[in-house]
Amino acid sequence: xxxxxxxxxxxxxxPYCALQCGMDLAAGxxxxxxxxxxxxxxxxxxxxxxxxxxxxxxxxxxxxxxxxLVRDRATGRLAAATWEEALDRIAGELSRTRAAHGADACGxxxxxxxxNEKAYALGKFARVVLGTSQIDYNGRFCMSSAAAAxxxxxxxxxxxxxxxxxxxxxxxxxxxxxxxxxxxxxALRYLTELRENxxxxxxxxxxxxxxxxxxxxxxxxxxxxxxxxxxxxxHLIVAEGRTDEEFIAERTSGxxxxxxxxxxxxxxxxxxxxxxxxxxxxxxxxxFCDAKASMVLTARGPEQQSKGTDTVGAWINLxxxxxxxxRPLSGYGCLTGQGNGQGGREHGQKADQLPGYRKLTDPAAxxxxxxxWGVDPESLPGPGRxxxxxxxxxxxxxxxxxxxxxxxxxxxxxxxHVEERLRSLDFLAVADVVLSETAELADVxxxxxxxxxxxxxxxxxxGRVLLRRRAVSAPAGVRSDxxxxxxxxxxxxxxxxFPAEPEEVFEELRRASAGGPADYSGISYARLAExxxxxxxxxxGSEGGLGGEGEPRGAGDLGGEGGLGGEGGxxxxxxFAHAAPHPGTRRLFLDRxxxxxxxxxxxxxxxxAAAEEPDAEYPVLLTTGRVLAQYQSGAQTRRVDELNSAAPxxxxxxxxxxxxxxxxxxxxxxxxxxxxxxAVAPARVTSSIRSDTVFMPFHWPGEGRANSLTHPALDxxxxxxxxxxxxxxxxxxxxx
Length: 736
Ligand SMILES: Nc1nc2c(c(=O)[nH]1)N[C@H]1C(S)=C(S)[C@@H](COP(=O)(O)OP(=O)(O)OC[C@H]3O[C@@H](n4cnc5c(=O)[nH]c(N)nc54)[C@H](O)[C@@H]3O)O[C@H]1N2
Ligand SMILES: Nc1nc2c(c(=O)[nH]1)N[C@H]1C(S)=C(S)[C@@H](COP(=O)(O)OP(=O)(O)OC[C@H]3O[C@@H](n4cnc5c(=O)[nH]c(N)nc54)[C@H](O)[C@@H]3O)O[C@H]1N2
Ligand code: SF4
Ligand SMILES: [Mo]
Description:
Helix content: 25-40%
Low-confidence stretches: 1-5, 544-577
Shape: globular
CATH class of the largest domain: Alpha Beta
Radius of gyration: 25 Å
Number of strands: 30
CATH architecture of the largest domain: 3-Layer(aba) Sandwich
Bound molecules: ligand MGD, iron/sulfur cluster, molybdenum atom
Mean pLDDT: 94
Distance between the termini: 44 Å
């Protein structure tokens, strides 16, 4: 390892999930890097999971890409090349594609792990340098349904509209489809403290997970039926007269239609759909309403469905009908997943979006951002395809792809088909820190720096913007994603506008976001360094705009001076006459929602079936998710010995009754077959799962790849694929 720590101890953040735990990095013995506890950071108070603790192992040049690779036309193999050769090749191929087939034949695919600066630069690169509309990113597979539902109901999407510290102080939490004991372990503390304070925890998950074990009440619905469940609860609440009519009248619109839609979902009917007994539904409704304040938190379980947006909408309706939103210690929140899952969805790598969470179809937004970019608004392309649709179009009208920060060969739905589409491209370039399964297919692979080797900002699941500092130097031969975009832009005729220095990019991002829903204009590296122990919550506007580019704060999409009605503070909301810096907005919606009239919108939703329900041929439901010791496609964590020992490979979790019926024994290999493909993994027999459902984690490639099976049906609003439910058949494979 040639990493050296400079300075000796650096306060920074974890590379992995959206909690963005604080950690200290110090020089370890033998030139290595050591993770130390950073007790002062409030989100995790020093606690780290095994992934964060072992993250320095992925800095090692033993597992890293340290030189560019270019596919040799004669041998078909990837071979070491210079940076000049690699960048020239990419620029040349993209130019050729554009000349032959038009700008939209060039695609770009990004990631929610990329810093704000990278996400911003990637979106600008696509629209300004390539002129393509064909850009989207893996966040589409993550929290897009919750984002769409939040926009629809509240006029704004910030995953959590309140800080995590509010959770222990509310009265009741319904946690829907989140296994945070494994996916955000240090956050489990907020739920245990809730219970210590006398509050109740209700967990909704088809499996009795490590998280569900902490619950006062565990509801285990059939996968894909959360929409019916939420509507059934609302039906009961209305029937028992427990709605908050004053709140509904003062702060919402659309109740009558939503109420009528919910009333069609009788508890007995909901029991038949979900498998959750009526008495449990009644208990849940009562606990939620009895508490003085309560919250609903969702994660991927209910969201990764072809009706994810409506499902989250139904849970939001429940909060609104009971006055559990826009009030202290109450509300709906989404537990966003990736390291920069929040910021990554705000600054323009999404198909329909411009920086600052602006809409690409909004003429004022186009004019504002075009001015910051120094281009004609007319030159900006319109919205492109969503992630799966883009991957599905590869080799069709999209001929070349630049991919940064994702590994879709493992993580995309119907992955066998996606792999085939990637192979059919004229040209594929991948920037990664390791040779991922997707990078293996590329014509050019660029070795890039990662978290501890570069400075950048990330926005955690609370909307807390953080400075993630460089702590070590990168291995020789590696460049940053920003340097890559700088080099490519220069070769494609844009010598200016793509600085490689993160702070310079952030300064431009501030101006581009000014006045938008996700306003970062009041945030700077200097302020983030000053607020290192806390970060700054967006929206955080500037007083008087920046360099004449920004509109006055609040004049944009949020409608006026009242801003978002966050809780006040010195010089806060509505008080921009004097020069005190904006303190950021820790809590949203307390005075008004971010809609035009300030009211939250009920959406009338009704239950519908999953895209693929079990039948005689494929009689079992498959759901997918995560385990504690592996992260996502596993590209990083499968390279860490300690994590591999804890979670060495894929498995199929199934109930003893199902196992007995199919004569499958613990540990025996079993083939799981769907209409998309087949996967093989050892059986793990456990009574913690419903007997009509099997579960597979999706972290592994090859034979045990769960996504060989999954269904690419998309939610009509968010374009989220149905990762959490499809129909499969199980075939025991007795070892010969
Ligand atoms: N260890 C680890 N931690 C991670 C990650 C990782 O890969 N590994 N990834 C990060 C990212 S990007 C994300 S998005 C988060 C995800 O965090 P989570 O959402 O907690 O993760 P999942 O395991 O995908 O899904 C959560 C639960 O949903 C349940 N579920 C399945 N189907 C349904 C359903 O139909 N309804 C309901 N209600 N529940 C269902 C599953 O049984 C599972 O326990 O984790 C982040 N943290
Ligand atoms: N069946 C099933 N499939 C799923 C899910 C599920 O629950 N079930 N969950 C979905 C969800 S929520 C998500 S978020 C996706 C995630 O799936 P992916 O998009 O595949 O996510 P990662 O494995 O994190 O891939 C990130 C890649 O970027 C690389 N990388 C890390 N840091 C950097 C960097 O700074 N720059 C560059 N250029 N590269 C970097 C990593 O090495 C890795 O190869 O998977 C989705 N797929
Ligand atoms: S919980 Fe998330 S942010 Fe915290 S150490 Fe683990 S992976 Fe890193
Ligand atoms: Mo995610």
